[in-house]
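ligand=magnesium ion
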Amino acid sequence: MALIVQKYGGSSVRTAEHIKRVAERVVATRGQGHDVVVIVSAMGDTTDRLLDLARQVTDLPSPRELDMLLTAGERIANALTAMAIHTLGAEACSLSGPQAGVLTTPAYGKAQIVDVAPRRVRQALDRGMIVLVAGFQGINPETGDITTLGRGGSDTTAIALAAVLKADVCEICTDVDGVYTADPRIVPEARRLEHITYEAMQEMAAGGAKVLAPRSVEYARRCGVPVHVRSSFHTGPGTMVSGSAEDVPTEHGAITGVAHDVSGTKVTVTGVPDRPGTVARIFRAVADAGCEVDMALQNVPSPADGRTDVTFLLPKDSGLAATAALRKVRAETGFAEVHQDDDVAKVSLIGSGMRAHPGVTAAFCEALAGAGVNIEVMSTSEIRISAVCRTARLSEAIRALHGAFGLDTGEGETEGEAATSG
Ligand code: ADP
Ligand code: ASP
Ligand code: MG
């Protein structure tokens, strides 16, 4: 008998009918003799609708009340799933994140799990029950306030519970049947990976592959939780996320896949005086406003006036806070203007040992050029090449890179061993 943690995403529970199907699947797993802990996300686009409701009430909702509001979505879904399980004759009880002992940092909207005290979960399991835990939420023990874990946070709840309960596996049940070489909704030729290492999955997730939330993969890697990404609707083989690159022999210059992200906004600070301390002051202001910076870039100063531009990406919902903070330090730093551009997307090629292959960067740029995609910002590292482009050109960019790096045919495969059928 195994202990299985199963997480169902929002699209897998978007209607009452979907919830009944999930309940059947949970009861079937229990029927095989396993202990089952289930984490359900809010139904369909509930979280977005609740956020929208808050914005209809105020432009600046209190972060504390926003978390209180959003956690209701997951509670509703878990309670309904428990009821559906009861109708099938099995015993189940749902718990909120705090009831399940999910303890977090105090940061509303982006709290991190610091510990899980699963006493009530264990008690219920010992009584033979199926235990449902509302994902994406916890409590800060000092403030006693309810917190949320950031978008996609139910993945992290599931993996944290799997870690503390020493579950045999954490199944992430979703609306695709595994992790693909690119988003299969954009690239029909994308191939399902049988296996992917934590490292490669972490890079795909950090690049925006939504199928697993970045922080959940980090958690799984740290605690060695085997993760099985699979369809909520049928029992295909899915993708196993486990092990490190050392366990999986790979060639240098290996490509895992293409990830994309439309959640960012591009901020450009123009006419920045070229002297020590100005760029530091700019990024300190942004950091103090609580904004996470990505792809920061400073141009070479113009010989004519000794000024330069600084560009970076931020989550779209941090744009207002960051530009306001920057305008406050404008006089002090002497820069000319701040611009924000929401119409941008980031596409990333994920792999390993890329720096050792100088041709990779050239091939990346050529593939985008061939698709008529203009590169606005670019960065390269050992494991990732990213470019920022117009949102309207994103799909072409993803497909061009996927084709150019042999991912359509499997020639470039390595990090993950691709399945023959998707
Ligand atoms: P859930 O509601 O189950 O949490 P998400 O919408 O968060 O599901 O994540 C699943 C989605 O991730 C898929 O529908 C797919 O469009 C997207 N996705 C992006 N990149 C990938 C990838 N490389 N492999 C699989 N799915 C991906
Ligand atoms: N409901 C939350 C969200 O939409 C958490 C999750 O689905 O994992 O981001
Ligand atoms: Mg998700």
